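Operator note (shift B, R.M.): manual run for Thiamine-monophosphate kinase requested after the automated queue skipped it. Running by hand, logging everything below so the morning shift can see what happened. Input copied straight from the record, untouched. If output looks odd, do not overwrite the archive copy; leave it for review.
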Amino acid sequence: MNEFALIEEFFADCTRQREDVILAVGDDCALLTVPPGYELAVSIDTLVAGVHFAAEVDPAALGHKALAVGLSDLAAMGAEPAWATLALTLPEADRAWLARFAQGLSGLAGSYGVQLVGGDTTRGPLTVTLQLHGFVPQGKALRRDGARPGDRVYVTGAVGDSGLALQARLGELPLTPEVLRYVEHRLDWPQPRVREALALRPLARAAIDISDGLAADLGHILERSGVGAVIEMESLPLSESLQSSLEPTQAWNLALAAGDDYELCVTAPAESHGPIQAVLSALGCPCTLIGTIEEELGLRCRLQDGTPFIPKHQGYCHF
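Run finished. Output pasted below as returned.
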């Protein structure tokens, strides 16, 4: 099976067809239409076997997650997903593997109206690169530089579960079968907060998705905005699985530094608290107030009694 047969069989029609796509898979470039009054948001992520996932991973989960991490980036900007391009490096053209990978990719793409419009395939170590494109009204994107002193800091969902799953897979921590199933699903099949982000866009000032760890990712907002923040440790949203598996200090360290959660961290003015809770509750998404933006630079974590909490790690570092 050559490159063109591979593309035609597994990827030419694996996602929905959009009206704003003039020309998609099968030519040197895709031809696309950006609607008037909107800006184009573009993100790209690479997943490498042995670094971001185990080589024996379920191909469907890999296809899902490769798209999910890009959708999460679009969500962090408050952008509506539209198109994707895929660069896939394979050790061999395995039809069964490719069918499962395309199944996972197309399943999530269908949920968010994403069309695969092009890409590339090569032979080599297993590597997946997906570029995502989305639309955001002009001047309305949620950016990292929008936080202001007095803003409240919120986190969607729960954080730390993926880190717990990774510890279990590395043999560092035994978990009950029930907890292991739950946290491994969170790690392998993340659900990007796209709909939640679109609801938050009129209410929030700054946002980021939690991929490298809450402390590191919130730190990016603080740096770009020229502000600091105080985080209340007992307020961190932790799942029952995480709380039942670790002591509080260990759980907080995972929640702050483990990453791979793909939840959203947003800052918003105090008057947005009620509306934020209302719109996310309507979507069935928990949203927790964890701290406050301050003028003093840096991130400060503290306990209820005012004692400082110093994280063991600051987040995932690629190099």
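Quick read of the result: The two ends are 36 Å apart (CA to CA). The longest strand covers residues 38-48.
Leaving this for review. - R.M.
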